[in-house]
Specification:
two-stranded antiparallel ribbon, 12 helices, globular, 302 residues
Length: 302
């Protein structure tokens, strides 16, 4: 069996295993943004630490066509029914409200008087993006579900703007509604059993109880207060992350339901086996498909 462990940098005390060769996008990030995603000293400066802490999994946040990684982390980060429901429902709302907000941005007016708006551009980008991923992965049934969803959300965004009263409440503003929807996605993680690396510890997953109170409740009052504030702050960072993630991950909500309904079992079995193996280790990777928690990746030497 071919191994790709040369792509992970060894971290003392951390078992690491790479199941799938990192994508070209991931290698691009390693070559050009190593200071952020994989600092040589495994720590980096204050800015890189802060960004990684807020993003938690920068490789999934900064790649757009890395199907194996996106599908893997989608399964790893959404273990509860609440998280899966929250993401399925409110990611559609995020995209719909973004389109509603962009309807006021005029890009061009066609000769027949039709206005080409920011919403049209956004919807077109999503359509092209989803088609490209489906074609590369040969999941054509997925494409047939994803494309109508964009069309429906585009139509819904227009209907929303037409309905929206001139003296509407602040929370009905499309951009405020986008943030509220993303916040609801973030809060749907609340029942997840463990905090991922960088959200708490640097390299390992840990339960909220152990992070705040310490194992056997041994943390000092100062440490408990600091860790409580850090945990609560992820409602802010998580909201921003979910705003950014919704265009990318919305179709994966559909795909996972399709898998569970029997679509492409040979593909699902492979993806699920990877996620299950990583979860059984207790420390699934967040930068690559495999085991190792927050272990950093590297470009192997020739």
């Amino acid at each position: 069996m071919k191994t790709y462990n040369q792509y992970v940098r060894k971290q003392e005390g951390i078992q690491a295993e790479v199941f799938v060769e990192p994508s070209n996008e991931a290698k691009f990030l390693l070559r050009n943004f190593g200071w952020l995603v994989s600092p040589p000293d495994k720590r980096g400066n204050f800015l890189s630490r802060a960004i990684r802490s807020a993003m938690v999994a920068p490789f999934t946040q900064m790649t757009f066509f890395s199907f194996d990684l996106q599908a893997f982390l989608f399964q790893i980060f959404h273990q509860t029914k609440l998280a899966r429901f929250g993401h399925f429902t409110f990611m559609m709302f995020v995209n719909m409200f973004i389109m509603a907000g962009l309807r006021g941005v005029e890009i061009a007016t066609l000769s027949n008087g039709v206005i080409f708006s920011g919403a049209t551009t956004y919807a077109a980008i999503l359509l092209i993006w989803y088609v490209a991923i489906a074609l590369v992965t040969k999941l054509y049934g997925w494409m047939l579900i994803s494309l109508p969803s964009v069309v429906v959300l585009y139509a819904a965004s227009g209907a929303y703007i037409e309905w929206l009263p001139a003296d509407h409440a602040l929370y009905l503003n499309p951009w405020i509604a986008t943030v509220i929807s993303a916040f609801l996605i973030a809060t749907s993680h609340i029942l997840e059993p463990k905090l991922p690396p960088r959200a708490a510890k640097d390299f390992t997953w840990i339960s909220v109880h152990d992070f705040i109170l310490g194992k056997n409740g041994r943390n000092s009052t100062f440490t408990m207060a600091r860790n409580t504030i850090k945990t609560a702050s992820f409602l802010i960072w998580g909201t921003l992350d979910e705003c950014w993630a919704s265009p990318r991950l919305m179709p994966y909500n559909f795909l996972m339901l399709m898998f569970e309904a029997g679509y492409k079992p040979e593909v699902y079995d492979k993806l699920k086996a990877r996620a299950d193996k990583a979860m059984e280790s207790g420390n699934p990777a967040v930068d690559y498909v495999g085991i190792g928690g927050g272990s950093f990746m590297q470009i192997p030497r020739a």
